[in-house]
Structures are given as structure tokens and as C-alpha cells.
Amino acid sequence: MAQRTALVTGGTGGIGTAIVRYLAGQGHRVATNYRNAAKAEAWRKQMADEGIDVFMVEADVSDPAACEAMARTIEEKLGPIDILVNNAGITRDTTFHKMSYQQWNDVVNTNLNACFNVTRPVIESMRARKWGRIVQISSINGQKGQYGQANYAAAKAGMHGFTISLAQENAKFGVTVNTVSPGYVGTDMVMAVPEEVREKIVAQIPVGRLGKPEEIAHAVAFFTTDEAAWITGANLAINGGHYMGW
């Protein structure tokens, strides 16, 4: 497998960390962004202790100028970005009739607008080099909706709309664009939910358990391979059978 340069946004989170580990394990040069310097340094040290060298850039994915600067910095340090995983995301949950514009805007900016902000600075180079892999990390709730998550579900559904349009525009340039839609995964965020609530969630999952971050990372890594060159515009649901759509 050729060594390539990969950017994973939100790489310090639960799923992001698993993706970073997986891509690094395949021999790729991996970069990610951060906003909290102290948290980022602790995470970087943890990765280094595992033998994983991650290039880190301070950048807010909701800020187009910061994303442009991030891409240029990574290119200068590691070379052209071949693999992009748009993974960064946040929640601001509340029922819509109580939702503020700020709660709506924060989620749409970080989860959806970031796809434009991060992808725009790297897409032309991928097209010119006739090779690229772009993967969006959406969500089961972008497929089925979720009570109290109108902002999150709208943004996550929009990510796949972005995917299928970008896939059509760039297929002939050797650039594939796909979406992975995880169900409920045992990250710190999900494990912080009260146990009785988690038990109700698990009871709805045919496989009978939460997903593992490594299972999501495996799917993402598959989409980034040369062997997956004929797959573009796909949305891979990984949710233990929790939601089975077409």
C-alpha cells in the first residue's frame, strides 16, 4: 500500500482517534486539527506513546480561513493531502420549539459547513493529481432523525447530500467521495449517558451492543484504499442493524 497523507478532522475524539490509529497503522502520514491546546497535547503524547506520530494544527473547522491555513500548513509539512476524513462534529440537543438560533447555527457550522471549509482547499489538488479519497462521518440520526436533534439530523443528512454531489463531479478525476453513518458507538460521549438510557438504546439494536470506534475506523479505512476505487457516492450504515434503510 502506498504511503499517503491523511487529514482527519476531530481526530482527538473517540471515533477520530480510532480512525487516526487505523490510518497510521496502514503507514499513512496523519494530521488532525485541535482547538483545546492542553487536551491536544495530552492526546498527542498518548499517540506518541503508542508509536503514532500525528501532525497537529490548531484550527476551527467552522472557520473557512482557518481551514485554508490548516491545509496549506499540512501540505508544507507532510505533502499534498490525499485522504480527507470529515469527522469533526458537535451536538447541541434540544427540541426544536426550544432551540435557539445559536444552537442551530453552531451544529450546522461545525458538522456541515465544515465539509465545505475543509474540502474546498484540498479538492483541486486531488483532481490535478488524479487521486483522492474523501469520507464524511455522518450518523444514523441523519438517516432516521432523532427527537431533540433537528439541528444535528439536518446537518448529518446534508453531509451525504454533499457526498453524492461531490462524487458525481469528481469521479472522472480519480477522486472518490463516500459517507459512513455510524449508529451508537461506545465513545466517552455515549458512555456519559445515564446507564438506564444506554440500556434502552442497546435494547433497540439487533446485534445487542454498542459499536466500537475501531469498527467505524475499519470502514473508513476501506474507503481510502486503491481497491475501493469503484465505490463512490455510497453511504455505509454501521449500526448493528439499528436502522435498515435502502
Task: Write up this protein.
The chain has helices at 14-25, 37-49, 64-78, 101-129, 140-144, 150-170, 188-191, 195-203, 213-223, and strands at 5-8, 29-34, 54-58, 83-86, 132-137, 175-182, 235-238. With 246 residues, it is an alpha/beta fold. It has a single domain (5-238), classed as NAD(P)-binding Rossmann-like Domain (Rossmann fold, 3-Layer(aba) Sandwich). It has a 7-stranded parallel beta sheet, with helices on both faces. β1 (5-8), α1 (14-25) and β2 (29-34) form a beta-alpha-beta unit. α1 crosses α9 and α3 packs parallel to α4 (101-129). The longest helix is centred in the middle third of the chain and has 29 residues, at 101-129. The chain is globular. The mean pLDDT is 96.
